[in-house]
Sequence to fold (163 residues):
Amino acid sequence: MIRKILLFLLIVFIAIQFFRPEKNVSTSISENDITRVYPVPENVQQILSRSCNDCHSNNTQYPWYAEIQPVAWYLADHIKDGKDELNFSEFGSYRIARQNKKMKECIKELKEGEMPLKSYTLIHTSSKISETDKQAIISWCESIQQILQQKYPADSLELKKPK
Fold:
């Protein structure tokens, strides 16, 4: 009986390998990419590439284990959630108030140590952010907020709640 169950599980495991989620890989930089809309210093760009872009851009660098189901499904869902929250590749398409809010949220998440996720840095140890890196990103986010404040009236920087 155990042998039949194991054989069945093996067949299911093999069968699910043929059902793959679409990969998050772009061949070009979007017109709305944050690097086309705001200045991104080289050191910040390196930190974003190393620690943020796998989940928060249109171009994920996939590890070898992303080829195995059900891991690929989990990663695809995780990346979708990350991009829904903040997508640097589409940042320029956000309303001004949303851009401001996302920069505020980035600062908060970094200060509280919420990003990058512990589950991500556990496996991707090179993606850990040092205090120096954290301060560089925070300063960059604040500089974007300053640009927004100089360019737009204060009331356009706040998200309005529906009545």
The chain has a mean pLDDT of 87. Residues 131-151 form the longest helix (21 residues). Residues 23-157 form one domain.
